[in-house]
């Protein structure tokens, strides 16, 4: 009996020891292998800029202490193996790249918006510059108007022309009949008459040089200066510059002027075949020359005529004076010739003397006065004794006053303004009476042009 009881007790005690020694988590280990644990996902760190303000946390009561469990002398069962939680350092290394990945799309979006804005502004500025460039080009293109483009009379063309246009040699060659219509020449230039396709008559002066080797740099400078100075003279008794031509092949240097159909004052005084000029016409011509010279001397700076003679005075259809300066710069003559306003006053006195006497006061081939002219200017001879015999009638009081003015121009050299004042008192001809009369078709042409422009 006692043996049986011991045996049962030993069996029970052995069973309990067996239960305590066996790991109680074998089934859980089998469960772990069947269902692997989920991968650890670190918590997201909220964006500090977008996170809401922290709210005060209400204190929570501390949890009640757990009842104490008596420790068993046997070792505690081990827990199932699981992936260890990452440390703080691992958290920082894992979380920061993901935060950067979340902020990169926002940065890329901001950069894209900046690029689009810069491209839009740049395109707008480029378009604005193109529009301004086109507008400036169109304005410059229509700023210069060719005087013959309208086909109108010379007076109307002068009213609309601004600046001096550059012409083509082919245009002038066609107008002057292949440069065969020669109307005069000197040692340095040749004069042509031409008619444009619109019917406007022109006078063309061309240098005698046919090669650029014979054309010095000084002559080129003087050519440019002359075009510039002539374009500044805006007077109705001045032969207007309409254009110029400069080409290298073939070598060409030309100036284009309006055409005066009645030739020069020299021809009408000294050539018998020319039209006779009566006393009133001569006084009107003299006043036109004086008014034009006064205008030239009042420019800033003053512009003096370089070769003022009776050959440089052209006459219009109604015999009004047209002062011309169409001769090219002569380096040899320029060395000995004075071109200041006072020299123009002296030359005007000589022209006036030539108109009253009908004789050439200079010695042929030189600039010295004839003996008879010196006797008159010296006061030893009366102008009445040397008056032009072709003048049928004249007023003696006017002739005497003009004689005194001629001596004043030769001796005292007054200003052209003073000369104009004295001569106007003698003749009674004002500026409007000395200028060329307008064409009867002028106002009709002006009205037609105004209608077409509107």
UniProtKB/TrEMBL annotation:
Residues 1-109 are annotated as: Disordered. GO terms for cellular component: endomembrane system. It is a single-pass type I membrane protein. GO terms for molecular function: ATP binding; protein kinase activity. Residues 7-20, 99-109 have a biased composition (Basic and acidic residues). It comes from the Eukaryota. Keywords: Membrane, Signal, Transmembrane, Transmembrane helix. Residues 26-35 have a biased composition (Basic residues). Its main location: membrane. Residues 177-425 form the Protein kinase domain. Signal peptide: none annotated. It is found in: Endomembrane system. The chain crosses the membrane at residues 114-137. PROSITE patterns: PROTEIN_KINASE_DOM. Residues 39-80 have a biased composition (Pro residues). PANTHER family: PROTEIN KINASE DOMAIN-CONTAINING PROTEIN, PROTEIN MALE DISCOVERER 2. This is Protein kinase domain-containing protein.
